[in-house]
Amino acid sequence: MPRATGDEKASAWVSRAIDLLLADRAAEPPTPLRAFPLAGPPGTALYLKDESLRPSGSLKHGPARDLFLDALRRGEIGPDTPLFEATSGNMAVAQASIARFLGLRYTAVVPGRTGPAKRRRIEEQGGRCHPFDPPLAIYGKARALAQESGGHCLDHLERVGDAIDWSGPHGLGAQILGDLERAGEPAPAWIVVGVGSGATSAAVGRYLRSRGAATRLAVVDPENSAYFPGWAADFPGYTTGMPSRIEGIGRPRMEPAFDPSVVDLVIPVPDVASVAAMRHLHALTGLKAGPSSGSCLWGAFHVLDRMGREGARGAVVMVVGDGGQAYRDTYYDDAWTEARGWHLHGPLSDLVRFTATGTWEATPAG
Q1: pLDDT digits (tens, 9 = 90+) for 75-115
Q2: Is pTM beyond 0.85 here?
Q3: Cβ atoms within 10 Å of 56's Cβ, excluding its own
Q4: How far, in whole angstroms, is CA 148 from its chain's centroid?
Q5: Sequence-distant (≥ 6) Cβ neighbours of residue 193 within 8 angstroms
Q6: Interatomic CA distance for residues 291 and 31, integer angstroms
Q7: Domain ranges of the chain
């Protein structure tokens, strides 16, 4: 029997890698849908889709796996291909996890100021960190390192929009509608998500429209981010030149994956409100989530208030993007938040009042 050539071995490895990722996706249990204890408005309900229970701890796990599948199918990743990405957040953690699953080397190019806790999360999943400055140069550096080493840059900000599988049963939109259907409930009136790369909102929005669902999609946007002003002005080239202070969401430009045509509402959320809502979510439910989930809770209350004023009924589903353990020494630390000028008492009072009564004392910011 003739021996397999190197090309044949590489092709066989790619086929096995694709099969492994598809089997892993099929075996992954759905994340839970939890009810939030809300008093009103009448005829409404709020649910939390808890994506913090994905294998690598955030909703980025599915898009990261789709990036790998796309690159494997394109012949860009082989058995010995070193992988690179420019990010220090949940996407890097998810990619490092998947690279280790396939036995591949993975390097995240991170800003030099990235703290040890964030680096440790990537390293715990088998990745390594390559600090580089200035921060906006990490994208070019990741591409350069990939080219120099004969590797591949996953480049999620540019590529995840085309790679993500939004139409299948494992997508977030399909899972949310399926969760409610299995509970004997109609499709929600609104789904509320954060927007970082824009891939999640695009995937959910496209799925809703492909199904002809009446569900509307709202995305939340923190200070310094380009999505709200760019969406409101219908100007995809809008930039702010400033980084978001809310981990996981917000960008200084509208990224290629963002699809404004499938978004019904963009809600600007003050940073202090995101942090207060994150704390409020933990106090009421015991669910310790990240600050992007606080943004989503504030946005969900905004939508529920709007429904109450319009006399609308139905459920709102907000997405919990990640867990809060990584933010123990930052967003959950009073001294850290006070040093940033985030005084939480006012928005916390608003959140407590809305939870108990279904009404705001005044119209919320945004």
Answers
A1: 999 999 999 999 999 999 999 999 999 999 999 999 999 98
A2: yes
A3: 23
A4: 30
A5: 172, 200, 201, 204, 217, 218, 219, 220, 296, 318, 319
A6: 19
A7: 6-20+60-162, 26-58+165-357
